[in-house]
Amino acid sequence: MTTVLVYLDHAGASLAKGERELLSLGASLGDVAVALAGEAEQTYLDGIGSYGVGTVYRPASAEVSDVLVAGKAVFLTEAVRAAGAGIVLLGNSYEAKEIAGRAGVRLESGVITDVVALDGDLTATKADFAGSYTVDCRVRTGIPILTIKPNSVEAAEAGISSSPREERLAVDVPVAAARVTGRTEKPASGRPELTEARVIVAGGRGVDGDFGPLEELADVLGGAVGASRAATDAGWIEHSAQIGQTGKTVSPQLYISVGISGAIQQKAGMQTSKVIVAINKDADSPVFEIADFGVVGDLRSVLPQATEEIRKRGL
């Protein structure tokens, strides 16, 4: 049976939603092994084992986490060889895509990014040109290395916690690699990670600096709050919330656009969302061209009514 190697870069006490999705997809394709770049507690490792993972490959030196993508790409390459992997799966962050590309060069293998579906013969479906086209493609050279968009796979229920076998790999970290000089932990908001959220409420120039109504709606829906570049550049919300061509790419089940015009730079980051709802007082706003549902009105009137109605229905 094919060995599927899932690359994880641990950043929490438990498995994130996107990590569970990758492990579930891997299990549907073959026997799963994990390449874990960061340090992890035993509870995290047991969580990996609950998805049927028998072996976790880890770098022998903590130096891999002290450099940027170069060291992690070398580690992933060594893990692929050690596992005899026939398929490699990663998340779809900018860093994961770069790691995939560098590992692809080292392994002389094809790489497909932004995958939203994968069938049994490894034909990958992806969105191109800001979601304007859907493309089916396959890797025909070497080992398929695929980066999977969050919310593309339903995560299976975890099984009984078990401790997988650990194997440490020697990694020759490039001397010229850029190194991390410090880390600052981001304050917890209680909301899901933007790239993994099933529901996103995003605001733009039209919110005029007030994200309060958007945060209330996001909280009743169990969603995350995002923003356009105009809103982050204005200092109304942190830059990590930016969605678009120069921000994060998201693909939630529900994307609510509030006071965003819908220029192509914004579309590039959210056009593959399953359902798009647009709220804008300008009926000619480009966002209505891609929205499944549209509301022409003042967000300060529309959002509180929507939030209250959702609370009443207990959704």
What count of helical segments does DSSP give?
Answer: 8
Low confidence ranges: none
Distance between the termini: 43 Å
Biggest β-sheet: count, sense, barrel? 9 strands, mixed
For this structure, the quaternary state is single chain
CATH topology of the largest domain, anyone? Rossmann fold
Q: List the secondary-structure elements in sequence, H or E.
A: EHEHEHEHEEEEEEHEHEHEEH
Class derived from helix and strand content = alpha/beta
Question: How is this structure best described in words?
Answer:
The protein is α/β, with parallel strands linked by helices and 315 residues long. The protein has 2 domains: 3-169, 3-Layer(aba) Sandwich (Rossmann fold), CATH 3.40.50; 194-313, TPP-binding domain (Rossmann fold, 3-Layer(aba) Sandwich). The protein is built from 8 helices and 14 strands. It has helices spanning 17-29, 42-49, 69-83, 94-107, 212-221, 229-233, 264-270, 299-313, and strands spanning 3-8, 31-36, 55-59, 87-90, 111-118, 124-128, 133-137, 145-148, 165-169, 199-203, 224-227, 254-258, 275-280, 293-296. The strands form 2 sheets. A 9-stranded mixed β-sheet has the order 7-6-5-8-4-1-2-3-9, sandwiched between helices. The protein has a 5-stranded parallel β-sheet with strand order 11-10-12-13-14. A hairpin with a 5-residue loop joins strand 5 and strand 6. It is elongated, with a radius of gyration of 21 Å. The chain starts with a strand and ends with a helix. The model has no long low-confidence stretch (mean pLDDT 90).
